[in-house]
Amino acid sequence: MKRKVIQLAGKTLVVSMPNKWVKKFGVCKGDEVDVEEEERKLVIKVQGKGEQTVKKIDVKELDNMLNRTIGALYKAGYEEIEITYHSPEQYKIIRKVLDKTCMGFEIIKHGKRVLIIKNLSDLHPQEFENILRRLFLSLLSSADDALEYVKQSNFQGMEEVVLRDSIINKYSDLCRRILNIQGYGTLKKTTTYYHICEELERIGDAYRDFMAFIIQNKIKKVDKNTLELFADINQYLRCFYELFYQFDMKKLEEFGVKSNIMKKTLEKRFDTVSPQVIKLNYYIYNIFYMISNMNGVLITANI
Q1: Fewer CB within 10 Å: C terminus or N terminus of the chain?
Q2: 140 and 275: one domain?
Q3: What's the whole-model pTM score?
Q4: Quick one: 91 and 191 in the same domain?
């Protein structure tokens, strides 16, 4: 839509806001709005959530993708969801997803094959920074603990790391939900931060799967070289964390140098003849690949 620029009092230039948008978000005379500059764009934001978003969905055709669909509805930013399901198995999946990842979502009404789920959390979108920091720190803590448990052949500790992945998932999902509802500064930062939050969850999953593999195969002793690579990948993750919060060109270049060294070292390790060692190194390489792939969006967000 287009709007004409109006001049008031000889100097002030004014553009009217669309009436439909004003009513939707309850903007009244005297209210304050945030106006942000993005090169040739001006972005107007209102405080609060505006109208509550409601979604109705019938999941009759879903089985394997039901859990991902529920998670996507949460991350999309809906405040209330009405789900029509068709079997006890589907209900169990929905219940499990809500318990594991959808922070603040609760079933407020359970009818015949119908669930009404509502966000009961008063968590403010402005808390995004704190939640993102918790996401990073939870992942770093799990990575460091995982290394120590592997060194000690502590299977109980490794099982704990597997369970702790649900916390990382919760923080990641909540971050993405807030970004979909409120955004984060410029559009460029919103999209790049969304990608980073998503990748951090996947990295957490990779550490979880690494521990699960060692547990399932009862690997009591991991070779020295693999342990060294494990320590290196944890340090590499910490380097990304530090670059994220203190971005500068020197740190970026150091991160790039570490990336090249890590890649060459890992590729050499795949020449080993031991299938078990190859599999262990695959998990580490997978983590490296995901951390490395975040550098592009981080640069985009900061230049």
Answers
A1: N
A2: yes
A3: 0.79
A4: no
